[in-house]
Input
Amino acid sequence: MKSLIIIPTYNEIENIEDIIQAVLSTASTVDILVVDDNSPDGTAERVEQFMSETPNRIHLLKRPDKNGLGQAYIAGFRWAVERDYFAVVQMDADFSHDPKVIPIMIRSLEQNQMVIGSRYIKGVNVVNWPIGRILLSYGASMYVRWITGMPVKDPTGGFNAIRMDILKQLNFSEIRFVGYAFQIEMKYWAWRSGFDLQEIPIVFTNREKGVSKMHGNIIWEALYGVLYLRLLKKHKHV
Ligand SMILES: Nc1nc2c(ncn2[C@@H]2O[C@H](COP(=O)(O)OP(=O)(O)O)[C@@H](O)[C@H]2O)c(=O)[nH]1
Ligand SMILES: [Mg+2]
Output
């Protein structure tokens, strides 16, 4: 059965062709869904070119406005649950996540319900990030564990896979965050729902092309978002 790799994009013209090719070549059993928020650089048009050359395996969701990573993923999840996939994999367009890990994640979902690509299982596996960004990310992971008690070493990571039968149990309208907080929120929901989360080691490499879209408010959202999740106990045990 096939799995769907969901890639949110905003101005990824320099990466999109290569990432699509790299992902498609990992296995014949993966399809791609690009969720583009009307990138001014023409990312979506580039995807459409590809779709005409490789029909069936590439899909595109075009959204009218830049609404953040979380909403792009929710739109992708809604698209996926109506189709016949074994699992979805979340990954970035900028090669920070190595496509070669995709088949390992999918295989691991035969035993587990959610697989988390983790930079912090043993030390810090991040390449070419400025020290400030590493400290922020690592500090955030400790903060999340401390506040929530969730036993996940890389709660803000964006390279994750979830089985479709589990994803179907998520009430999409409950998800409210946008950036790193969205990634935390997904894992927190799965953990509080009692699903087993398996962390596997990945190496995160800073992008070589294009620019990061993660700034300012997204960090604040993560800081207060974690408190919100914990204090209001938004997601109940099932
Ligand atoms: N559709 C959509 N994609 C986004 C948005 N913000 C970021 N992305 C994509 O999400 C992925 C991760 O973003 P990136 O800027 O690389 O974050 P960083 O790696 O944490 O610096 C990339 O594929 C981006 O193009 C957004 O508002 N909408
Ligand atoms: Mg990135």
Notes: Residues 3-232 form a domain with the Spore Coat Polysaccharide Biosynthesis Protein SpsA; Chain A fold (CATH 3.90.550.10).
